Amino acid sequence: MKWFVLIFFFLYLFIHSYTFFRLIRTNFSSRVSSILIFLFIFMLLSPLSWRFLDERAPQSITYLVVLTSLLWMGFIFYTAFFTLSLDVYRNIVTVSKKLFGVNPLPIPSPRLSFYTILLASFFLSVYSYWETLGLRVIRITIKTDKLPPHVRNIKILHISDVHLGPVMGTDKVLLIKKVWEKERPDIIVSTGDLIDGNMRRKDGLASMLKNMHAPLGKFAVLGNHEYYRGVEQAIDFTNRAGFYLLKGERVDLGPLVIVGVDDDDCRFFNACKGTVDEYQILKDTPKDKFVLLLKHKPRLNPSSAGLFDLMLSGHTHGGIYKPVGEFIIKRMFITDRGLVRVKDSYVFVSKGVGTGGPPMRLFSPPDVAIVEILNSAQKSIKLVQ
Q1: Which residues in 139-170 are b (16+ Cβ under 10 Å) and which e?
Q2: Do 364 and 317 contact (CB within 8 A), yes or no?
Q3: Which DSSP helix (H) or strand (E) runs through 139?
Q4: Cα–Cα distances in Å, from 111 out to 24, 83, 89, 114, 353?
Q5: What phi, psi does 291 have (nearest 5°)?
Q6: Residue ranges of the alpha helices (H) in 105-197?
Q7: Dihedral sign, CA of 340, 346, 350, 356?
Q8: What H or E segment, with its residue span, contains residue 258?
Q9: Is 80 exposed, middle or buried, given 0-12, 13-18 or 19+ CB atoms closer than 10 A?
Q10: In three state form, how does the secondary structure of 26-67 look?
Q11: Mean pLDDT score of the chain, rounded to an integer?
Q12: pLDDT value for 377
C-alpha cells in the first residue's frame, strides 16, 4: 500500500511538472508562470488533505474540497495526455523533415497548441463527468435445472464499487434504489468497495441501503478500498446497511448456495478472516444446487472453474476509460466488463456504480446487474444491455 501511494504521487508529480513546463511556461510570461505554479503545487498536494477533512471537517466543506481536487486530477490527466500526444506528433514531423528534407505536416504554434489542449481537456472532462451521472441496468438470464421444482425463478440485484465517501453519497444510493423499487429482487449482493471514506458520520446512507429489503437476504464481500479506509468501520457500515458479510464462507439458502471470499488485499493489513482462495470453499460445496460466487476482483484459482455456476465481481470499473480496460485491464483480470465463460462457469464483471478516483468515465458508464435464474432442465444464458 505504501509503495502504491509513493508511485502514485511520483506519477502525479511528473504529470504536473511535465504539463507545467511543456504547456504553461512556453505560453506565459515568467510573472504569470510564477503565479500558476502555486496553483499546480496546491492541487498536487491537495490529496494529502482528503483523509483529514473526511475525519474532522464539516461534510459540506469536505465534499467541495475533495470534489474539486478529484476533478482537477481528471482534467490534468487529460491535459498531460494531449500534451504528450502533441509532443510525439511534433517529433515525428521533425524526424521526417530531417530524413526526407520536407515537412509533410503542419506544426501548430505554441499558443494554438495551448488553447487546443485546454479546450479538448475541458470538454472531455465535462463529458466524462456527465457519463458518471447515469446508471445502466445489465440483464442476465440463466436457465438451470438446479433449482427445486417449486422455485420458478430467483432475481438477484448485483451492485459493486459504489465507493461511498466524501464525494459519492446519496445520489449513488438513489440510483440503486430506483432499480430496486422497479425490480424488487429476491436477493441483493454487493461485491466490494461499497465504501471509500469515513462512514461513521454517514448513518443516513446506511439507513437508505438498509431499507432496500430482499426476501432471501442481502449479502456482501469486502473490496480493497474497505481495507484502505479502515476495515472495522467498513464492516460496521456494511452490517448497518443490512448486508450479511461473507468472509470465506458459504450460505445455503435452500434454492441456491452463496459463497463469498474476502479481497486478497486483506493480507497487506494482516486482517484476513477466513480463506481468500475460493477453491477451498467450493471444493466442498454441493454441486446439486446453483452456486453463486461473490468475489471483488475477477480472478480465479484455476481449480475453481466449473465448481460454481455464476461468479459476480467488480473492481475493474471497465478500466474507467474504455481503452484502459480494453488494452490493460483485460490482461490483468478475467475481463474488464460484462459476461464471460470460464469452462462450465460464468463470470460477470460490473463496471461499478461509483468511481474510486476522479468522478469521470469514458465509454465505461456505471452499471448494476439484474440476474434472473430461471428453472429449466436445459442450461442457457443470455445477456441484455
Answers
A1: ebebbbebbeeebeebbbbbbbbbbbbbbbbe
A2: yes
A3: strand 136-144
A4: 10, 13, 16, 5, 39
A5: -110, 120
A6: 110-131, 170-183
A7: negative
A8: strand 256-260
A9: buried
A10: CCCCHHHHHHHHHHHHHHHHHHHHHHHHHHHCCHHHHHHHHH
A11: 93
A12: 58
Sequence-distant (6+) residues with CB within 8 A of 319 are: 325, 326, 328, 329, 336, 337, 364
> What residue has cell string 461534510?
59
Q: What amino acid is encoded at 81 in this protein? A: F
338-342 and 290-294 as β-strands: parallel, antiparallel, unpaired?
A: unpaired
Distance CA 160, CA 117 (A): 34
Q: Please state the rounded mean pLDDT for residues 176-198.
A: 97
What digits encode the pLDDT tens for the residues 346-363?
999 999 999 999 999 999
pLDDT tens-place string over residues 237-254: 999 999 999 999 999 999
Instruction: Of 251, 314, 303, give the one whose Cα is nearest residue 277.
Output: 303
Q: Output phi, psi for 84, to 5 deg.
A: -65, -40
* Nearest partner of 65 among 42, 81, 85, judged by Cα: 42
Locus of grid cell 480465479: 300
DSSP β-bridge partners for residue 369: 138, 158
Beta strand 345-349 pairing with 338-342: antiparallel
pTM of the model: 0.93
Locate cell 471470499: which residue? 261
d(CA 119, CA 91) in angstroms, rounded, equals 23
Sheet holding 187-191, edge to edge: 244-245, 218-221, 187-191, 153-159, 367-375, 136-144, 380-384
What does the block give as the cell for 74?
A: 481528471
List pLDDT tens digits, range 134-165: 999 999 999 999 999 889 999 999 999 999 99
What is the model's pLDDT at position 4?
77
The answer, yes or no, to whether residue 380 has pLDDT greater than 70, is: no
| HSE toward the beta carbon, residue 129, CA cutoff 13 A | 17
DSSP state of 317: G
Q: Please give the average per-residue pLDDT across 13-39, as a whole number.
A: 91
Say which residue the cell 508511485 belongs to. Answer: 7
